[in-house]
């Protein structure tokens, strides 16, 4: 039965033996060496696909037979009182390990078949002991199906040091709107996200490091902002505490501390909340751009000083979509939905930050195409942001410590629903001042301003 569950232990030596007898040891060795060389070539030629496809499988096999090998697994569960004594035979029944997956270097997802008399609560009651026995920093135990549990374990912190902020490119041509630098991934690679043609939703509790994901995109686009090839509209419902230092960078700006303003809605000026006026103006410019593209017969938008790439940043979306007056909430949700569904092809993007991503708080949540979860206050928030089952696959954003882990979170990649742990670069006040000094928009765009193609 054991060999039937692990056919590789029988099939691999049998295949090697048959190859040696039929083809000879030289041919067999050559095939093995060629396979190794092909794997190394794949890793060097295209590390991204190797990391996504091959690395998790190799890592899972290694950890299955080192970290969770039979006797070690049995001993761990025995010490945690997670075994069952069969009263009829006196046999000690151990929950069976069905599968080990290691999607990232610091996350293991273990599937376990429990014994009769056990439940998910049996394991949860011993959760702290099990995490300690397995050497995990964080653990999540969920029911996968009747008598089958999913145990997600997070080991260590790959971000022991604070990560510096993104570099400010020297020239607009060096800015890649398809790969905005934000920090590092747990693989040690640079963490980038596409912004052109995308909308970002960033969720995180107070002190989770959302500010790092506000200033890094601005630094990555700095030269485009300076040359007015990109324009930033900022709405700060928190009175400007976070954003006032970067005020010169913003084309349009409003906070909750501002007085009511007038907005021309086409039927005469109307007095509105200043933050709502910024939203309306952003929407109106989008409509004008759409009309211009239609008249020119263009299907692809090209950023230039005449037609800049426009980004709307909302520092705390919940204040507008749930905690404002009924009329404001209704208008915000309606206009945001219009921008999120129509703005991508016209070169209009939205980056919104929120503490509580529930559907009644952010009704337009599903219209955001890129989502990042920093430390959250509830386990349910993780799946709300990253998609159903994200927490079971290792995105334990609710388990991130409150101190020393600012800017650490999870995101899902464009090629996989598997969460990846990331950390955003930290911008000090001096870094923000540097950004303002180097990238404050000029009074007039350069006469020789180039254009920068952006895919629709």
Automatic annotation (TrEMBL):
An example Gene Ontology biological process: microtubule-based process
Domain (FtsK): residue spans on this chain: 170-383
The keyword Hydrolase belongs to this UniProt entry's keyword annotation: no
Ion transport keyword on record: no
Keywords on record: ATP-binding, Nucleotide-binding
A single Gene Ontology CC term: microtubule
PROSITE patterns per UniProt: FTSK, TUBULIN
Matches recorded under InterPro entries: FtsK/SpoIIIE/SftA, FtsK_dom, P-loop_NTPase, Tubulin_CS
Binding site for ATP: 204-211
GO molecular function, one term: GTP binding
Residues passing through the membrane, by range: none
Database matches in PANTHER family: DNA TRANSLOCASE FTSK, SPORULATION PROTEIN RELATED
Descriptive protein name: S-DNA-T family DNA segregation ATPase FtsK/SpoIIIE
Organism: Amycolatopsis sulphurea
Lineage of the species this protein comes from: Bacteria, Bacillati, Actinomycetota, Actinomycetes, Pseudonocardiales
